[in-house]
Amino acid sequence: MVEWIVKRAQGDRARVGTLAGMVCIVANVALCAAKGAIGVVSGSVSIVADAMNNLSDASSNIVSVLGFKLASKPADPEHPYGHGRYEYLSGLVVAALVLLIGVELVKSSVERVIHPEPVEFSLALVAVLVLSMVVKLWMATLNQKLGDRIESETLHATAQDSKNDVLATGAVLACAIVSQVTHINLDAWVGLAVGAYIGWSGFELIQDTVSPLLGQTPDPKLVKHIRDKIMSYPGVLGVHDLMVHDYGPGRKFASAHAEMAAEASPLESHDTLDNIEQAFRNEDGMIVTLHYDPIVTDDPKVASMRLRINAMAQQIDNRLSIHDLRCVPGPTHTNVIFDCVRPSDLQMSAEDVKHALAQRVESEYPKSIAKITIDEDYVGHTHE
Q: What pLDDT sits at residue 350?
């Protein structure tokens, strides 16, 4: 089914998501009808709740399909970066619906704990629940594989929801069998446990889907790929101030400063950076903007000072690094000017880092004044 959907979609991720959603809508509606009928006949609150969960899943699938449709809209003057984040929003709605179902199931189960009612057991009940588990396991696998294929948080959320359903239905089935054998009515208690589990799962899904909307740290593998690719070009000596912006799946933008020898031809250096940007666009589908950052390489004193000050920074914290160092001599002192990159989770404040590093520099290099700019690290601890 995975390959059929991908082939049918002709490589279009929006169509992949839409087809997956339509398949799941049909399956969930069928499961809801079957379990709803069995639940009403048997008088089982947990089975009825499970059926309503499937109906909610169908609603979530409709939201997902709508999200993929909206996310595929091209950029326009009001949204020059496209509409890709609609997919994240649809994933958030799916997660919220999962949480809501969990809360409602807990409420109905509490009522049944207070006012218990007998549950009728039948082979039809067992057959429907087993079939439901098989179908949901298949749906979880389908959405997980398709989500991996097109890197979709929405499909991953749908896959997790289907896994929850397998566990929930399994618990309901186990409850029905145990109750039949022991004559102890566990229906409401199992419904309560299942509801709590589904609710917690929905809460975790909300956290996962909100994160990219808020601007999460980019994938370390992506950061490494960007750095390694830039550094692979001749003439590039270092990379810093890397930023990655995520405007939805397949819509990532990045910017970075590329260090190149100041003694080299600016035209040649600029041409190299143009080639790198074009390679990212053609090979990775990513728009990368590079800033030409010339550094002096033929002055042994400056080169030695750069290495020494970087070592001083790492004595404070091994994640600190410096760049853009230059010396401006004067009649009474020399200004040592550079930037220091500070990880966002460092306990020391920017001012404390600046003060501690300035003390070390001015102690080792008399008649110098350290002029330090603190840069924040936006991609994690991945400095060269």
A: 93
Greatest CA separation for the chain:
97
β-strand partners of 239: 258
User: Is a pLDDT exceeding 70 seen at residue 383?
Assistant: no
Domains of the chain (ranges, CATH numbers): 2-214 (1.20.1510.10), 220-376 (3.30.70.1350)
d(CA 138, CA 157): 15
Q: How far apart are CA 294 and CA 264, in angstroms?
A: 9
- The amino acid occupying position 376 is E
Which range is most confident: 76-80, 194-198, 288-292? 288-292
Residue 373 exposed, middle or buried by CB count within 10 Å (0-12, 13-18, 19+) = exposed
Both tokens of 145, joined, read 């594989």
Q: Which residues pair with 240 in a beta bridge?
A: 257
